[in-house]
């Protein structure tokens, strides 16, 4: 099997349809680490989903492989998608015949797995927010029987911050956390009203004065 790898900065993801993946080996992508509030803000949909199928094919110009992922909604935290409705994710990379294109930083979907996803765009052609950060596997803990959300797979990427931080601190939470806790956090963020920037206040004018004149300054007539 031939493998083609590509690497690019996270900001290019929104324009992945314009990328051409060349058959050259590349180092890991640099991906901007996003906190949960930013992930929720950028996502049009946040949901627990089951992966139904993954199909890969060449694009119309036969320049890159695209994977189409069929997701079935289990529960929606943002976006209002009904249970059992379907969402479609289209992203670069995949396998066609004996050729595989791998894009570092792009998460993989496997039929049969359950995950929390953060998606942007239309339901019929969505993209994953934050690249690999936007998909987090859900697994049941055998000891407690509770569902836990696991840390995102880095997918061969290097995650970076835009603000200073301890060199030993992970760029995002690496421990599994209860599904109930993440659900509550996301729904609280969705319900939180957006912050607005106050408009600058205009200087007050004395009653009877005209705009553009100073108080006590004659506006016409005899001097």
List the helices and strands and how they pair.
Blueprint: E1 2-6, E2 30-32, H1 36-42, E3 45-58, E4 65-78, E5 86-92, E6 94-96, E7 99-103, E8 114-122, E9 125-128, E10 135-140, E11 147-149, E12 158-160, E13 177-178, H2 179-191
Parallel strand pairs: 1-7, 2-12
Antiparallel strand pairs: 3-4, 3-8, 4-5, 6-7, 8-9, 8-10, 10-11, 11-13
Description:
- The chain is mainly beta.
- The protein has one domain.
- It has 2 helices and 13 strands; from the N terminus they run ββαβββββββββββα.
- The strands form 3 sheets. Strands 3, 4, 5, 8, 9, 10, 11 and 13 form an 8-stranded antiparallel beta sheet that branches. A 3-stranded mixed beta sheet has the order 1-7-6, with no helix packed on it.
- The chain is globular, with a radius of gyration of 25 Å.
- About 9% of the residues have low confidence.
The helix/strand series, from N terminus to C terminus, equals EEHEEEEEEEEEEEH
**Mean of residue pLDDT values:** 80
Distance between the termini: 94 Å
Uncertain residue ranges:
7-26
Q: What Rg is obtained from the alpha carbons, in whole angstroms?
A: 25 Å
Beta fraction: 25-35%
Number of strands: 13
Helix content: under 10%
Please tell me the total number of domains: 1
Structural class: mainly beta
Number of helices: 2
Shape: globular
Largest sheet: 8 strands, antiparallel
